[in-house]
Design goal:
The chain has 14 helices and 15 strands. With 433 residues, the protein is an alpha/beta fold. Helix content is 35%, strand content 14%. α6 packs parallel to α7 and α7 runs parallel beside α8. One of its GO terms (cellular component) is mitochondrial envelope. Its EC number is 2.5.1.15, 2.7.6.3, 4.1.2.25. InterPro entries: DHP_synth-like, DHP_synth_dom, Dihydropteroate_synth-like_sf, Hppk, Hppk_sf, Pterin-binding_dom. Its cofactor is Mg(2+).
Length: 433
């Protein structure tokens, strides 16, 4: 409903420039109703405040809102919180909105967008962030909400007791570094069912290997590999609650996969390897995963110098990727982040990320995003454990998965789903309560 309302605003010439995260809260005032989802957006419009309100209320009406009980259940509620620096005192509209100071579900999204803006001209020294800091601690802390699909549970990156999602790797490639050629058309159904029985809640389908030295294939060939797997999963009753992710950095592949039923676009380049990728993601409206990488799979291993510090640099470069995504029209609440273990990081650098992952998650501007970590079978594990074959690195991978859960990962991307499903259950029992 919120995304539909944003589309309706755009269609009426009210340009949505930036959005906050979505925040899930218990209802206020009328308590006997479902939980609420709240967000704020910055818009650009030529409308004055009251004509803007008219348009917003007409959007509510067109979306079927019926106001039966004041502050009671409703499918959509659009308010004007601020209108530049103007003050409006009209029987139909008060700006700044009268409820801002007392409502955490308003102040949190506002603080993401304009933390250093004064709300009231009479108190220019008191900023949005100050009003948020003045609120008493909530008995049930608010969490961001990242939607996946109508049949898959949303991610709540700030809930202490959230369950870690297990993303199974399904490479439909002959040349992936550890499972190339394993998943054939004949074995695909059994592989998918094994993943689901092992606890996978997401399946990440890849048709182009990102291993260094692997030759590029055409977008058409990548699509021909990926689409049959998506169609198979969508045909299985057992997979109706499983999210499908497509692992691609090509816009045509992302589009074809989304049309076939993919829920997530997982781009290792965060839109850097295809100039059309970010705009395509925005138009498709799917949840996206933006990974930190430098260069391309062929050059990334040489681009691992971080003179200003690994965590600060990853944070800075991911903030740039997020800003580019938002500028292209991707909603903030549709973004998952990935620090990119093994991508432009070598050896000890990957261990450093795992040790300091909570610092990265809490970096200013990155708080509240859900995070995906993909350490499975990677070479840095082999270097530490002395295990040369990627398929034999199960125990080393298990340790990195436990570390990822402790550090706050929302999704772990793994090859050995049955084993890592057990690791995640145990790690969740220890750290997610």
């Amino acid at each position: 409903m919120i995304e539909q309302a944003c589309q309706e605003m755009e269609a009426r010439g009210i340009k949505v420039k930036r959005t906050s995260s979505l925040w899930e809260t218990e209802p206020m005032y009328v308590l006997d109703q479902d939980r609420f989802v709240n967000g704020a957006c910055e818009v650009e419009t030529e409308l004055e405040a009251l004509p803007l309100l008219d348009q917003l209320q007409d959007i509510e009406k067109s979306m079927g809102r019926k106001k039966l009980i004041d502050k009671g259940p409703r499918n959509i509620d659009l308010d004007v919180l601020l209108y530049g620096d103007e003050k409006v005192d009209h029987e139909r509209l008060t700006v700044p909105h009268i409820g801002i100071p007392e409502r955490e579900f308003v102040l949190r999204p506002l603080a993401e967008l304009i933390p250093t803006k004064a709300i009231y001209a009479s108190k220019p020294w008191k900023l949005v962030q100050d009003f948020l800091n003045d609120l008493p601690p909530s008995s049930d802390p608010l969490s961001t909400l990242t939607p996946i699909s109508s049949t898959v549970q949303s991610l709540n990156a700030l809930k202490a007791d959230r369950k870690t999602q297990v993303m199974a790797i399904l490479n439909i490639t002959p040349d992936s570094f550890s499972d190339g050629g394993v998943h054939t058309p004949d074995s695909l159904r059994d592989s998918v069912l094994t993943f689901i029985r092992g606890g996978a809640t997401m399946i990440d389908i890849g048709g182009q290997s990102s291993s260094p030295g692997t030759p590029d294939i055409s977008a058409d060939e990548e699509i021909s590999r990926v689409l049959p797997a998506i169609e198979l999963i969508r045909s299985l009753p057992e997979a109706q609650d499983v999210a499908i992710s497509v692992d691609t950095y090509r816009a045509p592949v992302a589009e074809a996969a989304a049309q076939a039923g993919a829920d997530i676009i997982n781009d290792i380049s965060a839109g850097q390897l295809d100039p059309n990728m970010l705009s395509t993601m925005a138009r498709l409206g799917k949840t996206v995963c933006l990974m930190h990488m430098r260069g391309n799979p062929g050059t990334m291993s040489k681009l691992n110098d971080y003179p200003e510090g690994l965590i600060p640099t990853i944070a800075k470069e991911l903030l740039e990727r997020v800003a580019e995504a938002e500028a292209a029209g991707i909603r903030k609440w549709r973004i998952i982040l990935d620090p990119g273990l093994g991508f432009a990081k070598v050896g000890e650098q990957n261990l450093h990320i795992l040790r300091h992952f909570d610092e990265l998650r809490n970096w200013p501007g990155l708080q509240g995003f859900p995070w995906l970590l993909g350490s499975s079978r990677k070479s840095f594990i082999g270097k530490v454990t002395g295990v040369p074959k990627p398929m034999d690195r199960i125990f080393g991978t298990a340790t990195t998965v436990a570390a990822a859960v402790q550090g706050g990962a929302d999704i772990v991307r793994v090859h050995d789903v049955v084993e890592m499903g057990q690791v995640v259950k145990m790690a969740d029992a220890i750290w997610r309560y």
